[in-house]
Amino acid sequence: MKYHEIKDLLRQCHGFATLCEEDLDLMAKCGVNAVFREGQLLAQEGHPADLFYLIRNGKVAIETHVPHRGTVTLQSLGTGEVVGWSWLFPPYLWMFDVRALEDTRVISLDGKCLREKCEANHSLGFRLMKTFMGTLVARVHDARLQVLDVYHSPQGG
Amino acid sequence: MSNGHVLTPVATEVLSVRHELRDTATLSLLPPPGGAPFAPGQFSMLYVMGLGEIPISLSGDPAESGLWIHTIRGVGNVSQALVRAIPGDRIGVRGPFGSAWPLDRARGRDVLVVAGGIGLAPLRPLIYRLAAEPEAYGRITVLYGARTPEDILYFHQLQAWKESARFHVRVTVDSGADDWSGNLGPVTHLISPVDFDPASVVVFTCGPEIMMRFVIRLLLGLGVAGERIFLSMERNMKCAVGFCGHCQYGPHFVCKEGPVFGYDQVAHLLAEKER
Amino acid sequence: MNARTIFRFDASRLGDLLDGIAERGYRLLGPVAREGAVVYDELGGADDLPRGWRDHQDPGRYRLERSDRNLFFEFNMGPHGWKKYLLPAEEPLWRALWRGEEMLFEETNVDDGKRAFIGVRACELAALAMLDRVFGEGDFRDDRYLARRANLFIVAVNCTRAGRTCFCTSMDTGPEARSGFDLVLTEVAHGGAHFFQVAAGTTRGDALLDALAFEEASPADRNLAKRLLDEAARSMGRHLNTGGLPERLAGSGEHPHWQRIAARCLACANCTMVCPTCFCNTVVDRPALDGRSAERIRCWDSCFSADFSYLHGGSIRQSTGSRYRQWMTHKLSSWVDQFGASGCVGCGRCIAWCPVGIDITEEAERIGEELS
Fold this sequence. Notes:
The complex is a heterotrimer. By secondary structure, chain A is an alpha+beta fold. Chain A has four helices and eight strands; from the N terminus they run ααββββββββαα. Chain A has one domain: Sandwich (Jelly Rolls), CATH 2.60.120.10. In chain A, strand 4 and strand 5 form a beta hairpin. In chain A, helix 3 packs across helix 4. Chain A is globular, with a radius of gyration of 17 Å. In chain B, strand 11, helix 4 and strand 12 form a beta-alpha-beta unit. Chain B has five helices and 15 strands. Chain B is globular, with a radius of gyration of 18 Å. Chain B folds into two domains: 88 residues, Translation factors (Elongation Factor Tu (Ef-tu), domain 3), CATH 2.40.30.10; 130 residues, 3-Layer(aba) Sandwich (Rossmann fold), CATH 3.40.50.80. In chain B, the strands form three sheets. Chain B has a seven-stranded mixed β-sheet with strand order 10-9-8-7-11-12-15, with helices on both faces. Chain B has a six-stranded antiparallel β-sheet with strand order 4-3-6-1-2-5, with helices on one face. Chain B has a two-stranded antiparallel ribbon with strand order 13-14. By secondary structure, chain B is of the alpha/beta class. The mean pLDDT of chain B is 93. Helices cover 17% and strands 29% of the residues of chain B. By secondary structure, chain C is an alpha+beta fold. Chain C has 13 helices and 16 strands. The termini of chain C are far apart. At the B-C interface, strand 6 of B face strand 6, strand 7, strand 13, strand 15 and helix 11 of C. Chain B: One of its GO terms (molecular function) is flavin adenine dinucleotide binding. Chain B: One of its GO terms (biological process) is pyrimidine nucleotide biosynthetic process. Chain B: This is FAD/NAD(P)-binding protein. Chain B: Keywords: 2Fe-2S, Iron, Iron-sulfur, Metal-binding.
């Protein structure tokens, strides 16, 4: 029952729209439900990144700590979004903290298991890579737009 | 237009001033006598004695025709003077000018409004219209991005629309302090095909040009046709009626054919680099 | 062609013609030789015309020189265009003033009266027709322009000599005046004879010619005039290949040649000032010292100035290359989209009056060339 529920949730995720039933099956088998309370960390910078998350409900912040500035939030992610890709690339360590901004329900997926399956089955690997690249590209565009600081008030006038 | 020359303003009174943000205020004015009712997306020219005249989009509810409302961000001499205005002040006004958001195109369809910064002002009359009869449209989504939580324009209005549950409203900021628990990221990050049918949605966007370029490319990638995307452009304007040449944007006069354009009209110009 | 009767009169009677126009209440405006150039100004009569002068023009060069032919209209044109009379270089539009607590706007009247343009060339008629479209045919009309325009009497002069910077045949505007005049003259000097051919283009022109009772031109006279016009058409100093040019320029945004032009261009705005169709203008607000009133002045502006494209925080077109591109693509390309015809009439003024001799025909040709 859990497995079917998870598969349905994965299928509804826009980011996974291109995956076939077989792939979704395989991913669902790597997933379990989890809940994080407001303020709780889903991931911690420098720790092994064996997992990634699909947010079922809630909101999380990608954060880092900058000396003299304290905690800086880089982006928030919400319902239906995928959190984390560090599990895909060496050294498989989280680059940022991920904190629940409110009580958040997620599907936690075993990235380590998935990446081993990708290595063994390149066809699956290619499809998953493509899926995650789509998310990655969107995030890079977002980050670039943020860096441009487009609403900044011009000086003088 | 009224009886005078199209370049001559009409004196009007500032009825009320609402300080929206650190550098932004909303003025309510009596419309010029005999003036045409304005359509969402149009602008007028506001004159301050001795300082000059600037184009400002009409940002009030088109149903309240007895009031012309303008939200102004103080960035230059004239706009700063307008932001400092107090009720009872006299200023000059001409208008309304320019093209309107083609809201008719959206009837019966999903609607997506994407605004950034002060770009929410020219879209507000359109949102009032949507709010007045949401049943005439499919799913309505309003997405708004600001620089920081302190820069969110019409905060309470957005909150009220959100709570009305007649349409989705989502707000995000590019950067926020520790106490900000709302969305953080650019407005593009709020765009999700969960909210609309890419095959039929009609999109209205206004904000910094670079923001609109990101928004439009993302939408095209989701399968939204360019002919259903509308944007509002901004250029230097002196006359507002096509005589002065300042607002030229490729073959267009932003004051006459714009400020609202169909994406297909300006697609080739958005990529053109002015240096 | 004009179905009206063509008359002729001896060159000595040009004064009678101008006097006849003046007697009808028109102030005469036309070419005079002054400070080394032919400029447009008030004319007392035919004696004020730059008789016996002709101009010699090249990229970045304009010289007046004496000619032993002693014709009235042997020159082509100087830096002035007729636009200065219809869209003055500086013009008060209105005055805002405080009366007690109230703000008032007082419009400045247009009272230039009836004016006659003497010696308007075919390319200049095309420029006037273009200004009519800009200010008189859109959703909004400029009453000031139209008031001035309505009070004009126009005497065109056909060009019987083409300058080295002329290319009106490329733009299909000349050298023969086809419409937009009350009278059109062709000056003919042949053998010992020196006469003008004249035809009316309007009933006002007809009435004047009736009063002057000139003799009808003979077929031989008309042949002579036609040969001169044909000769002028053949001797254009410049040529612009307009076929497909608007499309080529519209897609030329990243052409490297813009930067090469920018390296020469001084962004001095001369080309836009002398261009007879450049209409861009700005407004200046001139407050009184006591702060009780302010005058709004409209003045010529140029897309070469930094302020022209100013948008909160800075200029959209920061570089000279981008401004030159705006000017030329507007003139030769987007103008067609806006007003149904090219903004260039082929008068060549921008070539002669460019201090570094940038030649629009040559640059347009280069930009039009395919990238290798």
